[in-house]
Amino acid sequence: MGDRSLLEEYLAGEYVKGTTRSVWREAARNALTTLELPIQRQRAKRLAQRTSPLMLHLGCGDNYKHGWVNIDLARPGRKLDLKWDLRRGIPFPSQSVVAIVSEHLFEHIDLVGALSLLRECRRVMKAGGVIRVGVPNLERYIKSYLGGDPIINAVRPGRPTSAIAFSEIYLFHGHQTMYDVETLTLLLHEAGFRDAESSDYGTGWICPSPDSEFRKAETLYVQARA
């Protein structure tokens, strides 16, 4: 039998990593996080008492930000300040947080869950506090698919077709939702935030900027105030 086609290579490689394997990884992380729930509740109380100003980095993954309370599901070897499932809410007192940042978290959550989490963000945030949310930029990917932007080839090279590359932003790694400025702004306002607006990479109301260089190319940022 001859060499596998580009499509066969893709289905056996990137496709498996982006779909089947991520499901099992997520289940394992959820189980580990649940086991540590009592310990992490107490840790959240200590962090709230000892950290000033209190700034939360939600869904940090392996991207640890110094000066922030980095929160995500448990995983062996991952550096975190708090191992927590954000579907349980945010384990900090009301009006205790001055800033919240997340990058590439909300696409993993359906719209009901996203609105619920944003309402939790609003609950814990002090008046005048800032939230900054980064998600894959749907509008830019659409332009790229139509031939007007190089982002698909730059970020997802070697895919069998542009449509397959485009589909990864809402099919892979447990992604459930796609966002443009209008949609993300709507959710922030519905959650009780004000002055929601798009914000270029490296700019905005939080200084120094918490934006991650490796997220720059494909990320839409929207910021809002409590």
Question: How would you characterize this protein structure?
Answer:
With 226 residues, the protein is of the alpha/beta class. It has one domain: Rossmann fold (3-Layer(aba) Sandwich). It is built from nine helices and seven strands. The chain has helices at residues 6-12, 14-18, 20-35, 37-50, 111-124, 138-145, 151-155, 162-171, 181-190; strands spanning 55-58, 69-72, 82-83, 97-103, 125-136, 194-198, 219-225. A seven-stranded mixed sheet has the order 3-2-1-4-5-7-6. Strand 4 (97-103), helix 5 (111-124) and strand 5 form a beta-alpha-beta unit. Helix 6 packs antiparallel against helix 8 (162-171). It is globular. It starts with 5 loop residues before the first helix and ends with a strand. 33% of the residues are buried. The model has no long low-confidence stretch (mean pLDDT 94).
Structure described in brief:
This protein has about 230 residues and is an alpha/beta fold. It contains nine helices and seven strands, in the order ααααββββαβααααββ.
